[in-house]
Amino acid sequence: MPHPLIPHLERLVTPLAEASGLALQGVEIQAHRLPLTLVIQIRHADGRDINLDECAAFSGVLGEVVEASELMPQAYVLEVSSPGIGEELLDDRDFHSFRGFPVAVRFRDGKGLETTREGLLLERDEEHLQLNLHGRISRIPRPDVISVRLVTPATD
User: Rounded CA gap, 106 and 129, in Å?
Assistant: First the structure.
């Protein structure tokens, strides 16, 4: 169950990030850590990753806003970071690096309806994206692919 403060923090952080040309990628509260840790993931609004100096600069501004909001009455650690490689696979390097990894593919089916299929990434060539779906190969026409994201495999 997500922490009840997450929606409030998202509403607080989103306009601040946007005003800085950034996009909020995620808010996580790690309540099991002492003190509690507030993790904010951001990247540039155009999708580029941010660097360490940009994280530090945003952390200073964000820290002041969080303190002024009084949403966090207890002691906490603020971590501002980039999500790194990101969950979404975008370029050829990503698709090559993550062959064999579990992915979720959003695509338009033959009827034009948006659907999602999860499997192991086999490859992406000029024409198709290929997935291993429980031992069967599924080929999705590349023009129909909307997005490909890394996922955590389901444990059966």
Answer: 11
Closest C-alpha to 40, from 81, 86, 85:
81
Q: How far apart are CA 134 and CA 120, in angstroms?
A: 9
Higher pLDDT, 151 or 9: 9
Please tell me whether the overall predicted TM-score, pTM, comes out greater than 0.85 for this model. Answer: no
CA angle 121, 81, 99 (to 5 degrees): 10
Tokens for 125, please give them. 């060539």
At 94-123, the pLDDT tens digits run 898 889 999 999 999 888 888 999 999 999
Scan for tokens 């959003």, then name that residue: 106
Per-range mean pLDDT, top range of 8-12, 48-52, 71-75: 8-12
Q: Choose among 93, 89, 66, 86: nearest CA to 77.
A: 66
Q: Are 121 and 131 in contact (CB under 8 A)?
A: yes
Q: How far apart are CA 146 and CA 156, in angstroms?
A: 28
- Please give the single-letter amino acid code of residue 24: L
